[in-house]
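WARN  no MSA supplied for this record, continuing single-sequence
INFO  ligand: NAP
INFO  echoing inputs
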Amino acid sequence: MTDNANLIDPGGRVVMISGASRGIGEAIAKKLLADGYRASLGVRDVAATAERFSQFAGDKLLIDAFDAAQPDTAQSWLENTLQTFGKLHGLVNNAGIWRQVNFETGDEDDLDALWEVNVKAPFRLTRCALPHLRACGTGRIVNIASTDGVRFRDSTCSVGYTMSKHALMAMSHAARQFGYDDGVRVTALCPGAVATELVAGVPGVTPAAGQLAPETIAHIVATLMALPNNASVAWMPVNTRLESTI
Ligand SMILES: NC(=O)c1ccc[n+]([C@@H]2O[C@H](COP(=O)([O-])OP(=O)(O)OC[C@H]3O[C@@H](n4cnc5c(N)ncnc54)[C@H](OP(=O)(O)O)[C@@H]3O)[C@@H](O)[C@H]2O)c1
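INFO  complex generated
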């Protein structure tokens, strides 16, 4: 990178990352910490996550309880983040689940779980974080959506998951509108298959050899976090294979 890229210096900036216990979220958190951010990880199992981040233990890392199924934990995680670091510059809505719900299989409990974790929880966190992101003048939100957020690939896909990720896309556009004048930039990042537990057994996905590494997604998130206010990226597909429209 050259100096005239006008990238934002990570030093001192504070980013909240949901679902950082494993998979893509873990990779994002480790990349941001390595780049010099202070990271607040919202996870269901604080002790297990602390073990996975033992090399980062210190005053740049907070690991706090966050469970999409417990609405109050969004606010308590935000408050603990502010109490620890005093400010907030970024939010990565990463925690997510996949369930097979189509017109023949899956039930409404699965549909409700998808809505709860993939849509309502990011909505809640965005609502809590937005005033603080606005206050800093260069707030950033990255929502980990999916290629399933921008098209319906074929009938092997989960209709429910696809619906939830389309809803997350809509919320991303809305958050961008609400925060834009105060310098908040929001990106819906839309990867194809990433090599994590989430895609194990999911039909029709890119075979393992062609899947994205979580670290590749982390690298992209780090770039999005550091872009200046005049480089707004509303959404970004990351394809593992050729498709007709993305
Ligand atoms: N893998 C892919 O191919 C792919 C592609 C496009 C988009 N994505 C999206 O990327 C995000 C991360 O997925 P991943 O592949 O890293 O999946 P993963 O390895 O299964 O990790 C999912 C993460 O979400 C957390 N989580 C699940 N339910 C939660 C809840 N109720 N409350 C709080 N956290 C919860 C998990 O925490 P626990 O450890 O406590 O379960 C874990 O940290 C998801 O939003 C997913 O939809 C994934």
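The radius of gyration is 17 Å.
INFO  checksum written, moving to next record
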